Automatic annotation (TrEMBL):
SUPFAM superfamilies: CheY-like, Homeodomain-like, P-loop containing nucleoside triphosphate hydrolases
Sequence ranges assigned to domain Response regulatory in this UniProt record: 7-121
Keyword Phosphoprotein annotated: yes
Protein known as: Sigma 54-interacting transcriptional regulator
Keyword ATP-binding: yes
Residues in Sigma-54 factor interaction domain copies: 136-365
Signal peptide location: none
Keywords for this protein: ATP-binding, DNA-binding, Nucleotide-binding, Phosphoprotein, Transcription, Transcription regulation
InterPro entries recorded: AAA+_ATPase (IPR003593), AAA_lid_NorR (IPR058031), CheY-like_superfamily (IPR011006), Homeodomain-like_sf (IPR009057), P-loop_NTPase (IPR027417), Sig_transdc_resp-reg_receiver (IPR001789), Sigma_54_int (IPR002078), Sigma_54_int_dom_ATP-bd_2 (IPR025943)
Length: 446
């Protein structure tokens, strides 16, 4: 992944000095945003991500220390370096005691400044989290705390349950935990437990022997054995049928799996990370999820906040996704306009990061300029926000429409419909009952 340039917010009321420092720092590989007053700078920190703030101490209106105090309230992990032509030991002590990263006296020695900037950037929370989670773009204090907790438990061979709404990045976090663990050189295998019918899910997980069921033309080892020595990620574990939950629990307790149709068990060494958007406590109360399996999976629980609760991440995520999309599609687009960023930062994002990806992709594809305007973002958002179904809702909608078309095609003949769908009559009747479909409604009255 291409590493972005370190971003510096530079503030000084001396326009000439501001311009000269900007030119020099940009020439050395920094991405510099320069403004001549602290009030403007503070507004920029709300909707933009910076790796370090470099500010003059003495300025009209809000001074450098007052700016630092305001930044500290929202971005406690953002290093602030202060400069002053009126430097004194008293100023430096007062500033550092309040948490200012460093204090430089004008005229600033540029080698010392560069060294201080690089040290501050490398020590910031976002930069110091580590390569294990480099694909997770964040500056949210809540997310950084979550990542540090994830790093702590990564090397411990305990099961992890990741909670969070659809689209928040649960699989990304699971893979990051795998990358930080001692198993990182072994396979990371993922499966969505709600995407397959029960019989196929069982075969996918545990494998099957040749001839164990209709269509089993050859033996397969299953995902547990494929992930041996590594990590198996069970996404949407809350959608797993209860009968299969029993077999999963047995496999975890005995550390072995028995392929479908086999009388022999095979030992496995797999770490389980599971994820769900459902409330499993509620599912247990209505007997849709086994309590014993819940406690087996939920040794450590990590809950990813929705995107609207980590608004600090929206600008940097949008920029990161824009760079990725522009590179992938070879489109010459540079950034979002400021008002476009403001619009995204104040949107609800019911589809979370997945929805943001779609909005950015659409904007990059449709833009006719190098800077994406707010109007294009607004158009993309209005299309996305019409309705954002969960994965379960989307699957149920497809299933209902598929069954209707199938029954229309077979004129309500359940046996023929079962054959075309590759399911038995019992399964077909269960699906029809689930969706309130009656075969007679599809038979011709002529």
């Amino acid at each position: 992944m291409d590493q972005p340039k370190p971003k510096i917010l530079l503030i000084d009321d001396d326009e000439t000095l501001l311009r000269l420092m900007s030119i020099r720092l940009e020439g050395e590989g920094f991405d510099v945003t320069s403004v001549n007053n602290a009030t403007h700078a503070l507004r920029l920190t709300y909707n933009n991500a910076y790796d370090v703030v470099l500010s003059d101490l003495r300025m009209p209106g809000m001074d450098g220390l007052a700016l630092f105090d305001e930044i500290l309230q929202k971005h406690s992990d953002l290093p602030v370096i202060l400069m002053t032509a009126h430097g004194s030991v008293k100023d430096a002590v007062a500033a550092t005691q309040r948490g200012v990263y460093s204090f430089l006296t004008k005229p600033v020695d540029h080698k010392e400044l560069r060294k201080t900037l690089l040290r501050a950037i490398s020590s910031s929370s976002r930069q110091s989290i580590g390569e294990w989670c480099e694909d997770i773009v964040t500056r949210s204090p809540e997310m950084i705390r979550l990542l540090k907790q994830a790093e702590q438990i990564a090397t411990k061979n305990v099961s992890v349950l990741i909670s969070g709404a659809s689209g928040t990045g649960k699989e990304l976090l699971a893979k990051a935990i795998h990358n930080a663990s001692d198993r990182k050189d072994k396979p990371f295998v993922a499966i969505n437990c709600g995407a397959l019918p029960e019989n196929l899910l069982e075969s996918e997980l545990f494998g099957h022997v040749k001839g164990s069921y209709t269509g089993a033309h050859q033996s397969t080892q299953g995902l547990f054995r494929e992930a041996d020595g590594g990590t198996l990620f069970l996404d949407e574990i809350g959608d797993m049928p209860v009968s299969l939950q029993v077999k999963l629990l047995r496999a975890l307790q005995e550390r072995s799996v028995r392929p479908v149709g086999s009388s022999q068990s095979v030992e496995i060494d797999v770490r389980i990370i599971s994820a769900t958007h459902k409330n499993l406590n509620e599912a247990m109360q209505i007997n849709e999820f086994r309590e014993d399996l819940f406690y087996r999976l939920n040794v450590v629980n990590l809950e990813i906040p929705p995107l609207k609760d980590r608004f600090e991440d929206i600008p940097i995520l949008a920029e990161h996704l824009l760079r990725q999309s522009a590179k992938k599609h070879d489109i010459n687009v540079l950034k979002f306009a400021d008002d476009a960023i403001n619009l995204m930062s104040t949107s609800e994002w019911p589809g979370n990061v997945r929805q943001l990806v779609n909005v950015v992709e659409r904007c990059v594809a449709l833009t006719s300029s190098q800077i994406i305007p707010a109007s294009l973002v607004e158009q993309a958002l209005s299309q996305e926000n019409q309705y954002w179904p969960t994965l379960t809702e989307a699957r149920d909608t497809f299933e209902y429409e598929y069954l209707c078309r199938l029954l229309q095609l077979t004129e309500g003949n359940v046996t023929r419909a079962s054959d075309l769908a590759g399911r038995n009559r019992t399964d077909m009747h269960k699906l029809m009952k689930k969706h309130g479909l009656v075969a007679a409604d599809f038979r011709s009255t002529n």
